[in-house]
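S.,

Sequence below, as promised.
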Amino acid sequence: MKLLVSCKDLSEARLLAKYDIDIIDIKNPSEGSLGANYPWIIEEIRKEIKLKEISATIGDLDFKPGSYSLAACCLKLIGVDYIKAGLLVKREHAEIMAKNLRKATDGKRLVLASYADYKNISSVSPIDLINICYKYEVDGIMIDTFNKRGKCLFDFLSLEYLKEFVKRAKDCNLIVAIAGKLRMEHLELIKNLEPDVVGFRSAVCDTREGNISEEKLKILVEMFKSL
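The prediction came back faster than expected:
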């Protein structure tokens, strides 16, 4: 499993680069679960940090395939390793979004995210998104939580559902990532699910939109790498 930790600016990225973190993710928590950051912030992180894989998100996306294809193309030009997008749309619109985002990111790894609380927000389910990703040759699939107020991934989806999700996605040769207000006490559950990538932010921050705590970060890295 790879460890992904999200940062919001260059100073946090520099801190993450000091530790044994596989993927430094760039997002803007003030704009949502997969809130998009500014291109100049992403670019300065990409230019300075060359020895880590970098991912960045284009946001929690409603049905605007043209606008978001343009944003995805911007990330492709900046040169991040993974381009992520949350699909805040129903299944039929998710297909159109996936088709156009794949075209916009051709040559880069594209990861599409669905939400563990998809029933509450009437968006495409994680299981349904697997088939869409396979159809349009998307590289990876992710589950996150849209609502970050208190509940985590495991509050919305059962272990049985998550195991089936991981199995089906791997059968389709997709990179499988999970996130969603995960905490350090979830690490054994996560290990048993065997995803390819596990994402954290709130577990290493005092508040979601606050700064990363180096003390918490050290603990997470040590615990994760000992699994």
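Residues 2-225 form a domain with the TIM Barrel fold (CATH 3.20.20.70).

Coffee later?
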